[in-house]
Amino acid sequence: MEEAVISTSTPAVELAGITKRFPGVVANRDISLSVRQGHVHAIVGENGAGKSTLMKILYGMQRPDEGEIRVNGSAVTFRSPSDAIAAGIGMVHQHFMLADNLTVLENVVLGSEPRKGGIALDFGTARRKIKQISDTYGLGIDPDAMVEDLGVGARQRVEILKVLYRGARILILDEPTAVLVPQEVDELFGNLRELVREGLTIIFISHKLDEVLSVADAITVIRRGTTVASVDPKGVTARQLAELMVGSELPSPETRESTVTDVVALSVRKVSVHSPDERCIVDGVSFDIRKGEVLGIAGVEGNGQAELVEAIMGMRPADGQIVLGEQDISAWSTLRRREAGIGYIPEDRHRHGLLLEAPLWENRILGHQTRKPNVKGPWIDRGGARADTRRIVEEYDVRTPGIDVDAAALSGGNQQKLIVGREMSGDPVFLIASHPTRGVDVGAQAAIWDHLRAARAAGLAVLLISADLDELIGLSDTLKVILRGRIVADVDPQNVTPEQLGSAMTGAGEAA
Amino acid sequence: MNAAESSFADRLLGRVRLSGLLSLAAPLLAIVFAGVVTSIVLLISGDPPLETLGIMAEYGAQPRSIVLTLNYATTYYLAAIAVAIGFRMNLFNIGVDGQYRLAALVAAAVGGAVALPGPLHIAMIIVVAMLVGAGWASIAALLKVKRGVSEVISTIMLNAIATSLGAWLLNKERLAVEVAGSNNIGTKPIAESGQVPGMAIIPGTEAKVFGLIILAIVVGVIYHVLLNRTRFGFDLRATGRSETAAVASGVNVKRMIIVAMLLSGAAAGLIGMPQLLGSSYSYSLDFPTGLGFTGIAIALLGRNHPVGIAFGALLWAFLDTSSSILQLHEISPEIVLIMQGTIVLSVVIAYELVHRYQITAEQRRVSKELAGGASPRPEGASA
Hints:
heterodimer; A: alpha/beta; Rossmann fold; six-stranded mixed β-sheet; B: mainly alpha; two-stranded antiparallel sheet; 15 helices; ABC transporter permease (chain B); transmembrane transporter activity (chain B); cell membrane (chain B)
């Protein structure tokens, strides 16, 4: 009966027509969303779909260009997170923001310390309040424990408690299960049910479909910056959800002739990568890429793709063997691998691909600082580098007023086109394209795809990592699925359905 | 904080360029602001601001003061370049001070102990100084690369150790002799073949400008060419701007740390040379300390740019020189310290303001020129 009362009441959070633009990119477009009070409302979508921007807007970290936010029926404008907190919205970040060397109590009151007589801290009241919250919601937190002694699951509960302590009735949880092991996930879900039973509302951001289905009362799917569907978890399968997430309109399989040759350009043999704490992140991955072949690796983010790429680039120590052409390059430095003809379009262009505060022509040199036309012996060849930057700007349609502007001034799509142009220069024999069209506008995306196709036709071997199924199926000659660091399936991109691929990727069902 | 945006430290250390007139606007703004603050302090202490500045300017413009200013500036310039080499790649070599003192001491002792034909003698002393400076800095570099020890901590400690080591070495049983006509002790004076004669280039005074002012200019040119025109310099600047991007582009960051630290130390070794070879000919207890820290301030002031540092060093030296006249007018010379501190602080703030203005302006300009209808909003944490 109570359920019926709750479901007829005003929605806890309503977003209408939210749009947020960055230069050249629309991060959120006409997002509409209604979250009922007392619900666990999941927001799912691939990385880069616009979930985080949306949550930043809801938490007051960014302001929307258009649209309205209503909390409990009344329209609000958030200028900062403190406005959001005042409206009863709290956020639990993916990465914990706790001081290890303080107690739970100290961490919780940090920033909103209870005062006694104006100066002294009133720890007694705070301790009672924390105990009370912990008991009410079954969090099982000891206020006097040191945070450094707590496990990951307990730390997360401290984060939740911190938000509740500040009076939040609506909780945003950003990928809360990313850092948890399965048992801890179950515990967390238990806590969440406890919280909604007490009338709180939870917005749960994730791309792990099986988890979302097990905990959510309502699901909204975001794709390419906009809400594409709101579904009831009872009436939807993981496959259908995966399809919604990545888009079901797959490009019609192009009738293009295969350019795959018999010559193996890169051979990866039993490569494994371990984290500093000896966890196996990439587990015995083997594959060959031939000249003129695009090998796609499908997988949900965080299943070892990034580490595999870094191992091939020599940026991360790895076991196993990597052979480029005839040569075993396993022991080579990153520079030597690049010189031998490996091009690299990194996943995070801001961190690994560009010097944002340097002009475009200096960015042209990056990664090619030992090769013509950028250098003459030990000297930088300014003339050569600048001329070649102009060529890239021209050929790859980088929209820029000139080659002396800083890379930071360009839009994401144009930055990416510059990187693609750079990495295609100097006749690479093998190219790693890691999420090559993430966060770029549609026009740039099509252009980058064309460039990749042309390079493939010219005999380039390409390793394509992507979370975008359209991209993977449209470009790849061979598809492999990676899950928890292992290649778990080989897929024929000509015949695969998005359901099969989505299931294999999320581990939600049998492999194709 | 998004990794994509330049951090405050980047801007502080001048790894972010400002273009055109804006790069001049910031320091001018800062100096004007510092002048205002100093005037307020002078007013509070009951001295007339304009008159005080007038006295300083008048005294500073005298031929003898100009020579003194140039000589101070030579030393300061080398100190700031030594610091700037590290700054350009995110290394905070706080140990320039210790590197300089140890290098000067050992070079003086070696120079005093041998006699070689003129240029060779001078060259040898300079090379020894650079080697000692680089050697002392290499301790911090190795600790950072092998053990991950922050160079800030290790160089500060190495400064303290250098002080003690210097005191131990500068003893009559080891490297020191008694300085004739005083109770001071110093290294054995360097023979005439190892001395660099001064240049009487300022008319109206007998005082001579350090001959090694030329060394400072040469070092400035080498610094500029090395950083901006060579592959090595590109790698160094790339590492300073974004270590992750440098790694992905194939830069061996550990090797860059060692090389940059050695270069910084070698440059630090040069700091004492103008005075040692140009006027004192011996390292004694009264050799100036704290030059490394002056170097940090001037490197910040000059934004690690070779010309900017030259102006910074001259300004600093001018203030130091002209402070000595203030006492005669019963104005506390400490006013100059306040001024120097305010200038550094306001330069940092002014650059920050100008930078913020510039980045939005550039984004606006790019979107406007492209007329793609993109909004002029700065690209913050992108989607």
